[in-house]
Every structure is written in C-alpha cells, then in structure tokens.
Design a protein that fits this description.
The protein is α/β, with parallel strands linked by helices and 465 residues long. The chain has helices at 40-58, 85-93, 97-114, 130-142, 219-231, 245-260, 292-295, 304-310, 323-346, 356-366, 372-383, 389-403, 407-412, 418-432, 436-448, and strands at 5-8, 13-16, 24-29, 62-69, 122-125, 146-148, 152-155, 192-197, 215-217, 237-241, 267-271, 274-276, 280-281, 319-321, 451-456, 459-464. A 5-stranded parallel sheet has the order 5-4-3-10-11, with helices on both faces. A 4-stranded antiparallel sheet has the order 6-7-8-9. The termini are far apart. Bound molecules: adenosine monophosphate (AMP) and zinc ion (ZN).
C-alpha cells in the first residue's frame, strides 16, 4: 500500500493518513441545506469530497461515508439569529417546509448523479435524528456546558478548552462587527445554540417536544449527533467547504469533545471556494448563484465538463468560474474523449494490461493531497507515451475510477464524423437535462446524416446505417 498524504486543517499541514481501523475509513461530509438548489460552488466541494473518497477506494480502503441533509435548524444569521432557512424557503414558494426539503433533496441527488459523484453509504436527515440530538444536548447539560436564555439552550464556549484549535482564531480580537448580529443574552460571542425555542406567538412548521420546551435543534448539533451515531469511535475524516471552519466545524468539535471527553475527528479537510469574476464568492444568500441547470444543462453542455473543470484547480485553491473556463474545460474533455476513442479503436480486439509505471505515477499525484492537476498531466503523459495502445486503454479505464468521467461510454461509440459527433454530444447533454423534445430532434438530425441512434442501458449507441 502506498502512503496517502492529506492536508489536515487541524494541524495546518499535510500529514500521512492513518485510519483508526486498518481497512475501513469513516468519512463524514457536511451535506446540503435543502431550501434551494445547490449552486456550482457547493458542487465543487462535493466533487472534491468525491475525489477524496475515490482515492481512498483506489487505495483499497473500504469507506463508510455518511452525509447529512440539513432540513431544519440552519438560520440565516451567522450566529443563531435570523430566520430558519427552511421556513423562509417555505414562505418564498408557498409550499410546506417538508415539501421544500423533499423537493431540493431530490434536486441535489439528481445534481450529484449527473456529476458522477458517488452516493454516500448513508444519507441522514436532521429531522430523522432529533432524539439523538436531544440526547447529546442532555449529556452536555449534565456536564455543565450549557446555559439557558430566553430563546434557547446555548453551549458555553468559554468552558471548552482549546475552542479555536481548528479555526486558529484570536477570540479577543474577534469583534462584534456589522456582520455579526448581537445577542445580549449570550455569555460569549462564540457561544452557540444547541436548542432554540419556538417563538411564543408563532407556530413553526417544524418543531418538537424536548426537555426544555417545544422548539428545534441548532444547526451544528446534527452533524455531531449523526457522525457519532453512524461512525461511532471511528471518526477518521470530516469534510466541508472552508466557510465551515470558523463556526460550524469549530462548534462541532467543541460540543462533541465536551460530551465524550475524546478526540472527535482526526482529520479535517476543507475545499476552497468557487469564485466568480472579481473574486466574489458564490453564495446561496447572494441570489446570484449558478446552478448546474442554468450554468451547463440549459446550454447543452455535458455536466461532466464541470467535473473536468474542477480538476484543473487544486481543491485548496480558489477556482474561478467564467464562460471561458467552462469552454476550455469543454474542449479539454472533448480532446480526452477523442484520445480515448482513438485508443479504443486502434486497440480493438487486443488485450492490454494496466501500466504499472504510469499507475505508480498517477497514485503518487492523487495520494499527494489529491493533486488532480498533476494527475491529469500523468494521464496525458501516458496517452502520448509509447506503451501499447491496448495497455493505454486498460490504464485510462483504471484511472477513470478516480476521474469518474464515464470514459467507458466513449469507447462504446464508433468513431463518428465530427458533425455527427457534435450532434451526439449535444443529444447526451439534452438527455442529461431531461430535454426529451430536444433529444428527439437531435436523434432525427443524426438519422438524417445516415446514422441510427439506440438508447441502451449502457448508454447511447450510434451505428452507421
Ligand atoms: P450549504 O448547502 O450552504 O450548507 O453548503 C454546502 C457545502 O458547500 C458546504 O460544504 C459549504 O462549505 C460549501 N460551499 C458553500 N459555498 C461554496 C463556494 N462558493 N464554493 C465552494 N464550496 C462552497
Ligand atoms: Zn455539518
């Protein structure tokens, strides 16, 4: 087994990854808050986490992957103020909070499937683990880490030593600036809600009985309750975007370690932001965000182009999104698909094996903190090398276990004239966008050029007629 090095936000350094158990890695990735579509910035983070998982699998680990669905308790304000995002979504769309959650959960699952992101082993909704969250809060109360205010039960961060071990923040200089809403009843600025009471004059759609009164859990407690429920003591890697470091993950560590007296996760990994021109972060709250639908599918661009685009930038560096960067990725993916198609044709009927030399180089890159830009360079080096065509085919198919670009589909298509290939690519994108009318129209156009289109369970087949 080769060593894997991962950047751990706790130590702020690349460390050799050593799982708690020998063969199985416990992985927890913070999931979506389902009050709106995921934007392509969120999806960048899920692509990074998918590569991490695939790298662990490629290195022969079993992975037990848990992802939560935040369907309650995430407030619009940074520090437990503001409205519940789900209730807000409900008002916006005139549906119940439960319908909103269901709709956007399905939309999210659809998005990640189109990006070839492997599903977690277990999906968990916050609303399905309320009892576990209440139990955890009770433990914290028994251990005297909590206090009550007029609007909820809070965690006293001053009682937890080393509260800033992940964020490395200087609390004294953390001023209550304009961005941070004030709550005069909180003992410390960084204290956070474990349980919030339903307002006396409003009946919430999502609320539960608890030992402290009717209300709903704070956002952070769900991830602690779920990860410990499903991963037990085997808490290897916890991921999310960099925005989670200062508050969400810092609070998860504080409440979990306060409750158990044990170290929570060993390794914390964070993906950098997707930014748009001018360096602005893409955010749901900005209402200026791009979804997979309007950034790619509507333009008949294969969603895997975005996956390929994400590989061009290391996950710890900000990635800039623009029409030009998508176009460049589109050309890059087309080029790779053409290379694979050519190798498949020239090597047809020959048996090849995975090149050990190139596999080693490839692993060295992916095991070096998921260095995808350099792994892609190895892919090109291999495809341009003088190893046999059949070996190239076997090797690229092996690499696709990491890339997840469905390169096996490419080889199923015959070499087609450029104009036909373009229609086929457009039709694939139309089908991904569920634009059946466009798909039919493109099928007719392909047939007009003398080719028959068959949709099989293995994908689209195009045969000269
Ligand atoms: P949310 O649905 O808002 O809870 O976010 C889902 C995931 O996307 C979290 O891991 C966030 O840290 C991450 N995220 C949010 N905005 C961006 C962005 N602009 N680029 C990359 N990741 C992001
Ligand atoms: Zn979380």
């Amino acid at each position: 087994m080769m060593k894997i090095y991962l950047y751990n936000s706790l130590s702020r350094s690349k460390e050799e990854f050593v799982p708690i158990q020998k063969e199985t890695v416990g992985l927890y990735t913070c999931g979506p808050t389902v009050y709106n579509f995921a934007h392509i910035g969120n999806l960048r983070t899920y692509i990074f986490e998918d590569i991490l998982k695939r790298v662990l699998l490629y290195n022969s680990y079993r992975v037990k992957h848990i992802m939560n669905i935040t369907d309650v308790g995430h407030l619009t304000g940074d520090r437990d103020m503001g409205e519940d995002k789900m209730e807000k979504g409900s008002q916006r769309e005139g549906k119940t909070a439960w319908e909103i959650a269901e709709y956007y959960t399905q939309a999210f699952k659809n998005d990640i499937a189109q990006l070839n992101i492997l599903e977690p082993d277990i999906w968990v909704k916050a609303t399905d683990t309320i009892d576990d969250q209440i139990a955890l809060i009770k433990t914290l109360q028994e251990k005297d880490y909590t206090y009550q205010t007029s609007d909820g039960i809070y965690f006293d961060t001053a009682k937890f030593e080393d509260y800033t071990k992940l964020s490395h923040q200087d609390i004294d200089s953390l001023q209550e600036g304009a961005r941070v809403e004030k709550n005069p009843e909180k003992r410390n600025l960084t204290d956070f809600a474990l349980w919030k009471f339903s307002p006396a004059d409003v009946r919430r759609q999502m609320e539960w009985e608890s030992p402290w009164g009717v209300g709903f859990p704070g956002w952070h407690i769900e991830c602690s309750a779920m990860s410990m429920k499903y991963l037990g003591d085997q808490l290897d890697i916890h991921c999310g975007g960099t925005d989670h470091i200062d508050v969400h993950h810092t609070n998860e560590i504080a409440q979990s370690e306060a409750a158990t007296g044990k170290k929570f996760f060993n390794c914390w990994m964070h993906g950098a932001f997707l930014i748009i021109a001018g360096g602005k972060k893409m955010a749901k709250s900005e209402d200026n965000f791009l979804t997979l639908e309007n950034a790619l599918l509507k333009k008949k661009i294969n969603p895997l182009v975005y996956r390929f685009a994400a590989f061009q930038t290391h996950y710890r560096k900000p990635m800039e999104y623009s029409d030009e960067s998508v176009q460049a990725a589109r050309n890059g993916l087309l080029h790779l698909q053409n290379q694979v198609r050519e190798v498949a044709q020239n090597g047809a009927g020959q048996s090849g094996s995975v090149s050990e030399a190139y596999k080693l180089k490839f692993i060295e890159m992916i095991n070096d903190d998921l260095n995808m830009p350099r792994a892609l360079a190895v892919v090109q080096e291999m495809l341009k090398s003088d190893i046999s065509t059949a070996d190239k085919l076997a090797t690229i198919m092996d690499f696709d276990r990491i890339l997840g670009l469905s390169l096996d589909q490419v080889t199923k298509l015959e070499a087609l004239p450029q104009e036909v290939q373009k229609l086929v690519d457009d039709r694939q994108a139309a089908r991904a966008a569920k634009d059946w009318a466009m798909s039919d129209q493109l099928r007719d156009a392909i047939q007009d050029l003398g080719y028959t289109v068959q949709d099989t369970k293995d994908g689209m087949k195009v045969i000269k007629t």
